[in-house]
Amino acid sequence: MSATYRLVHFTPDPFTGARLSLGAVILADDGAVRVARVARLPGAECVGSRDLAVAVRRLHGRLASISSAEALPAAFGPYASLAAPERVPDEVPDPVVWVESLLNPVRERERAPATPRGAHRSTLGYRFFETWHVDRYVKKTFKAATDWDGWLHRHAAGLQEISHWVPGKKRVLLMEPVVPTRPHFEKDLQEIATRLLAYRYAVGHSENGRRGEVVAYVTAGGPQSLRAEAIEQLTPCAHRVVDTDAVGQRSAFIQAIEEIGSQGDPQATLPLPA
Questions:
Q1: pLDDT at 268
Q2: Which of 251, 157, 238, 241 is nearest to 199 (CA)?
Q3: Percentage of residues in the chain having pLDDT higher than 90
Q4: Which of 68, 69, 73, 230 lies 20 to 30 Å (CA to CA) from residue 156?
Protein backbone atom coordinates (compact mmCIF):
# COMPACT_ATOMS: atom_id res chain seq x y z
CA MET A 1 0.00 0.00 0.00
CA SER A 2 1.32 3.45 -0.90
CA ALA A 3 1.35 6.35 1.55
CA THR A 4 -1.50 8.85 1.31
CA TYR A 5 -2.06 12.32 2.71
CA ARG A 6 -5.06 14.54 3.48
CA LEU A 7 -4.75 18.30 3.76
CA VAL A 8 -6.08 19.94 6.92
CA HIS A 9 -8.09 22.95 5.76
CA PHE A 10 -9.16 26.01 7.72
CA THR A 11 -12.35 27.66 6.43
CA PRO A 12 -12.86 31.11 8.02
CA ASP A 13 -16.09 31.78 6.13
CA PRO A 14 -18.13 28.76 5.00
CA PHE A 15 -20.31 31.01 2.81
CA THR A 16 -17.43 32.04 0.54
CA GLY A 17 -15.75 28.63 0.64
CA ALA A 18 -12.27 30.17 0.92
CA ARG A 19 -9.80 27.77 2.51
CA LEU A 20 -6.21 27.75 3.63
CA SER A 21 -4.07 24.76 4.54
CA LEU A 22 -2.72 24.33 8.07
CA GLY A 23 -0.92 21.08 7.35
CA ALA A 24 -1.60 17.51 6.35
CA VAL A 25 -2.24 14.11 7.88
CA ILE A 26 -0.09 11.38 6.34
CA LEU A 27 -0.95 7.68 6.45
CA ALA A 28 2.27 5.79 5.84
CA ASP A 29 2.37 2.45 4.03
CA ASP A 30 2.97 0.73 7.39
CA GLY A 31 -0.23 2.24 8.83
CA ALA A 32 1.50 4.90 10.94
CA VAL A 33 -0.10 8.36 11.07
CA ARG A 34 2.21 11.35 10.84
CA VAL A 35 1.65 15.09 10.43
CA ALA A 36 3.19 17.74 8.16
CA ARG A 37 2.82 21.46 8.86
CA VAL A 38 2.64 24.76 7.04
CA ALA A 39 5.71 26.75 8.11
CA ARG A 40 4.23 30.27 7.95
CA LEU A 41 0.75 31.26 8.95
CA PRO A 42 -1.20 34.21 7.51
CA GLY A 43 -1.97 37.24 9.64
CA ALA A 44 -5.24 38.97 10.39
CA GLU A 45 -5.21 40.84 7.05
CA CYS A 46 -5.36 37.55 5.17
CA VAL A 47 -7.99 35.68 7.21
CA GLY A 48 -10.25 38.63 7.97
CA SER A 49 -9.78 39.43 11.66
CA ARG A 50 -7.40 39.11 14.60
CA ASP A 51 -9.73 36.58 16.25
CA LEU A 52 -9.55 34.33 13.20
CA ALA A 53 -5.76 34.71 13.09
CA VAL A 54 -5.61 33.54 16.72
CA ALA A 55 -7.85 30.58 15.82
CA VAL A 56 -5.49 29.66 12.98
CA ARG A 57 -2.50 29.62 15.32
CA ARG A 58 -4.33 27.51 17.90
CA LEU A 59 -5.46 24.94 15.37
CA HIS A 60 -1.98 24.83 13.87
CA GLY A 61 -0.64 24.05 17.34
CA ARG A 62 -3.09 21.15 17.70
CA LEU A 63 -1.89 19.29 14.59
CA ALA A 64 0.35 17.09 16.75
CA SER A 65 -2.76 15.72 18.50
CA ILE A 66 -4.08 14.12 15.30
CA SER A 67 -3.88 10.32 15.56
CA SER A 68 -6.19 9.25 12.74
CA ALA A 69 -6.37 9.91 9.02
CA GLU A 70 -10.13 9.36 9.08
CA ALA A 71 -11.29 12.29 11.21
CA LEU A 72 -10.00 15.30 13.12
CA PRO A 73 -10.22 15.47 16.92
CA ALA A 74 -13.29 17.27 18.28
CA ALA A 75 -11.06 20.12 19.54
CA PHE A 76 -10.59 21.30 15.95
CA GLY A 77 -14.21 22.44 15.84
CA PRO A 78 -16.23 23.50 12.78
CA TYR A 79 -13.55 25.64 11.10
CA ALA A 80 -11.25 22.73 10.22
CA SER A 81 -11.78 19.81 7.87
CA LEU A 82 -9.90 17.04 6.07
CA ALA A 83 -9.59 17.09 2.30
CA ALA A 84 -9.93 13.97 0.18
CA PRO A 85 -6.98 11.54 0.31
CA GLU A 86 -4.16 12.03 -2.19
CA ARG A 87 -1.48 9.52 -3.07
CA VAL A 88 2.21 10.06 -2.34
CA PRO A 89 4.37 8.84 -5.27
CA ASP A 90 5.85 5.38 -4.66
CA GLU A 91 9.41 6.54 -5.26
CA VAL A 92 9.31 9.15 -2.46
CA PRO A 93 11.62 8.00 0.37
CA ASP A 94 10.10 10.23 3.09
CA PRO A 95 6.40 11.13 2.65
CA VAL A 96 6.49 13.77 5.40
CA VAL A 97 9.36 15.67 3.78
CA TRP A 98 7.64 15.42 0.40
CA VAL A 99 4.28 16.70 1.69
CA GLU A 100 5.97 19.53 3.62
CA SER A 101 7.61 20.63 0.36
CA LEU A 102 4.11 20.91 -1.13
CA LEU A 103 2.85 22.91 1.83
CA ASN A 104 5.82 25.27 1.90
CA PRO A 105 6.79 26.02 -1.70
CA VAL A 106 9.44 28.32 -3.05
CA ARG A 107 11.39 29.14 0.08
CA GLU A 108 14.43 28.48 -2.08
CA ARG A 109 15.04 31.81 -3.84
CA GLU A 110 16.10 30.19 -7.11
CA ARG A 111 12.58 28.83 -7.57
CA ALA A 112 10.91 32.20 -7.20
CA PRO A 113 10.52 34.37 -10.31
CA ALA A 114 13.16 36.99 -9.61
CA THR A 115 13.04 40.61 -10.61
CA PRO A 116 16.20 41.85 -12.36
CA ARG A 117 18.71 43.17 -9.85
CA GLY A 118 18.88 46.58 -11.53
CA ALA A 119 15.18 47.36 -11.02
CA HIS A 120 14.62 49.68 -8.06
CA ARG A 121 11.86 48.87 -5.60
CA SER A 122 10.31 52.32 -6.00
CA THR A 123 10.30 51.97 -9.81
CA LEU A 124 8.60 48.59 -9.65
CA GLY A 125 6.06 49.91 -7.18
CA TYR A 126 5.20 52.94 -9.31
CA ARG A 127 4.10 50.63 -12.11
CA PHE A 128 1.08 49.74 -9.99
CA PHE A 129 -0.13 53.35 -10.08
CA GLU A 130 0.47 53.55 -13.83
CA THR A 131 -1.40 50.30 -14.44
CA TRP A 132 -4.46 51.56 -12.55
CA HIS A 133 -4.24 55.08 -14.02
CA VAL A 134 -3.79 56.98 -10.76
CA ASP A 135 -0.14 57.93 -11.31
CA ARG A 136 -1.16 61.57 -11.95
CA TYR A 137 -1.94 61.85 -8.24
CA VAL A 138 1.19 60.07 -7.01
CA LYS A 139 4.44 61.94 -6.43
CA LYS A 140 7.83 60.31 -6.10
CA THR A 141 10.18 60.64 -3.13
CA PHE A 142 8.68 62.39 -0.11
CA LYS A 143 11.29 64.52 1.71
CA ALA A 144 10.21 65.23 5.25
CA ALA A 145 12.18 68.47 5.54
CA THR A 146 10.48 70.25 2.65
CA ASP A 147 7.55 68.42 1.05
CA TRP A 148 3.92 69.25 1.79
CA ASP A 149 4.99 72.65 3.15
CA GLY A 150 7.57 70.98 5.36
CA TRP A 151 4.82 69.35 7.39
CA LEU A 152 7.23 66.95 9.12
CA HIS A 153 10.30 69.19 9.15
CA ARG A 154 10.57 69.01 12.96
CA HIS A 155 11.19 65.25 12.67
CA ALA A 156 13.17 65.33 9.42
CA ALA A 157 16.54 64.54 11.00
CA GLY A 158 15.38 61.00 11.80
CA LEU A 159 13.42 60.27 8.64
CA GLN A 160 14.55 58.78 5.36
CA GLU A 161 12.74 59.53 2.12
CA ILE A 162 9.45 57.76 1.41
CA SER A 163 9.11 56.26 -2.07
CA HIS A 164 5.68 57.64 -3.05
CA TRP A 165 3.12 60.06 -1.68
CA VAL A 166 -0.27 61.54 -2.49
CA PRO A 167 -0.89 65.07 -1.14
CA GLY A 168 -4.34 66.46 -0.45
CA LYS A 169 -5.44 69.63 1.30
CA LYS A 170 -5.55 68.16 4.78
CA ARG A 171 -4.51 64.53 4.22
CA VAL A 172 -1.51 62.80 2.73
CA LEU A 173 -0.70 59.19 1.90
CA LEU A 174 2.93 58.17 2.50
CA MET A 175 3.53 54.89 0.68
CA GLU A 176 6.24 52.23 0.47
CA PRO A 177 6.08 49.39 -2.08
CA VAL A 178 6.85 45.82 -1.05
CA VAL A 179 8.03 43.70 -4.00
CA PRO A 180 8.02 39.95 -3.21
CA THR A 181 9.87 39.11 -6.45
CA ARG A 182 12.97 41.13 -5.59
CA PRO A 183 16.19 39.39 -4.51
CA HIS A 184 17.04 39.87 -0.81
CA PHE A 185 13.39 40.26 0.04
CA GLU A 186 14.00 39.89 3.80
CA LYS A 187 16.47 42.78 3.75
CA ASP A 188 13.91 44.94 1.91
CA LEU A 189 11.29 44.00 4.48
CA GLN A 190 13.49 45.01 7.40
CA GLU A 191 14.32 48.37 5.83
CA ILE A 192 10.68 49.08 4.99
CA ALA A 193 9.52 48.20 8.51
CA THR A 194 12.08 50.54 10.09
CA ARG A 195 11.14 53.39 7.75
CA LEU A 196 7.40 52.98 8.23
CA LEU A 197 7.66 52.83 12.00
CA ALA A 198 9.66 56.07 12.06
CA TYR A 199 7.09 57.82 9.88
CA ARG A 200 4.16 56.45 11.84
CA TYR A 201 5.65 57.96 15.00
CA ALA A 202 6.33 61.30 13.28
CA VAL A 203 2.85 61.46 11.77
CA GLY A 204 1.33 60.74 15.17
CA HIS A 205 3.21 63.68 16.70
CA SER A 206 2.68 66.15 13.86
CA GLU A 207 0.91 69.46 14.38
CA ASN A 208 -1.05 72.04 12.34
CA GLY A 209 -4.16 69.87 11.85
CA ARG A 210 -2.94 67.89 8.87
CA ARG A 211 -3.25 64.11 8.86
CA GLY A 212 -1.05 61.49 7.30
CA GLU A 213 -1.52 57.79 6.65
CA VAL A 214 1.50 55.50 6.37
CA VAL A 215 0.84 52.72 3.86
CA ALA A 216 2.71 49.63 2.70
CA TYR A 217 1.45 48.09 -0.52
CA VAL A 218 2.47 44.61 -1.66
CA THR A 219 2.85 44.41 -5.44
CA ALA A 220 1.61 41.50 -7.52
CA GLY A 221 3.52 38.26 -7.95
CA GLY A 222 5.88 36.20 -5.87
CA PRO A 223 5.18 33.25 -3.57
CA GLN A 224 2.11 33.50 -1.37
CA SER A 225 4.26 32.64 1.64
CA LEU A 226 6.34 35.80 1.13
CA ARG A 227 3.25 37.94 0.60
CA ALA A 228 1.75 36.66 3.85
CA GLU A 229 5.06 37.24 5.64
CA ALA A 230 5.17 40.85 4.45
CA ILE A 231 1.59 41.55 5.53
CA GLU A 232 2.14 40.02 8.96
CA GLN A 233 5.40 41.85 9.67
CA LEU A 234 4.34 45.27 8.38
CA THR A 235 0.84 45.45 9.87
CA PRO A 236 2.16 46.79 13.22
CA CYS A 237 4.39 49.31 11.40
CA ALA A 238 1.90 51.01 9.08
CA HIS A 239 -1.60 52.41 9.31
CA ARG A 240 -2.56 50.24 6.35
CA VAL A 241 -1.02 47.27 4.53
CA VAL A 242 -2.54 46.67 1.09
CA ASP A 243 -2.36 43.37 -0.77
CA THR A 244 -2.78 44.59 -4.34
CA ASP A 245 -3.72 41.06 -5.44
CA ALA A 246 -6.83 41.24 -3.23
CA VAL A 247 -9.59 42.94 -5.23
CA GLY A 248 -11.32 44.62 -2.30
CA GLN A 249 -8.12 46.01 -0.78
CA ARG A 250 -6.86 47.19 -4.16
CA SER A 251 -10.12 48.98 -4.96
CA ALA A 252 -10.20 50.75 -1.58
CA PHE A 253 -6.56 51.80 -2.01
CA ILE A 254 -7.14 53.22 -5.49
CA GLN A 255 -10.24 55.05 -4.28
CA ALA A 256 -8.30 56.63 -1.41
CA ILE A 257 -5.60 57.80 -3.83
CA GLU A 258 -8.20 59.37 -6.11
CA GLU A 259 -10.13 61.04 -3.28
CA ILE A 260 -7.06 62.55 -1.61
CA GLY A 261 -5.17 63.32 -4.81
CA SER A 262 -8.10 65.11 -6.45
CA GLN A 263 -8.17 67.56 -3.55
CA GLY A 264 -4.44 68.18 -3.69
CA ASP A 265 -2.99 71.63 -3.26
CA PRO A 266 -0.53 72.53 -6.05
CA GLN A 267 1.42 74.60 -3.51
CA ALA A 268 1.93 71.58 -1.24
CA THR A 269 5.33 70.68 -2.64
CA LEU A 270 6.93 74.12 -2.25
CA PRO A 271 9.88 74.13 0.14
CA LEU A 272 9.85 76.07 3.38
CA PRO A 273 11.05 79.68 3.10
CA ALA A 274 14.67 80.18 4.06
A1: 38
A2: 238
A3: 35
A4: 230
- Residue 45: pLDDT band (50, 70, 90) is low
Report the largest interatomic distance among the alpha carbons of the chain, rounded to a whole angstrom: 82
pLDDT in tens, 91-139: 788 888 888 887 876 543 334 444 544 468 999 999 999 999 999 999 9
CB contact at 8 A, 182 and 124 = yes
Q: How far is CA 212 from CA 111, 115, 152, 166, in A?
A: 38, 31, 10, 10
> Which DSSP state fits 107?
-
Q: b/e map of 66-102 (b: 16 or more CB within 10 Å)?
A: beebeebeeebeebbbbeeeeebeeeeeebbebbbee
For range 65-81, the mean pLDDT: 87
* Close Cβ partners of 270 (under 8 Å, ≥ 6 residues apart): 149
Closest C-alpha to 196, from 243, 146, 130, 142: 142
For residue 4, give the amino acid letter. Answer: T
- Identity at 186, one-letter amino acid code: E
228-261 b/e (C-beta count within 10 Å ≥ 16 → b): bbbbbbbbebbbbbbbbebeebbeebbebbbebb
Distance linking the first and last C-alpha atoms of the chain = 82
The pLDDT value recorded for residue 261 is: 93
Long-range Cβ contacts of 117-122 (<8 Å, 24+ apart): 117/183, 119/182, 121/163, 121/177, 121/179, 121/182, 121/188, 122/163, 122/164, 122/177
Q: Specify whether the CB–CB gap between 203 and 214 falls below 8 A.
A: yes
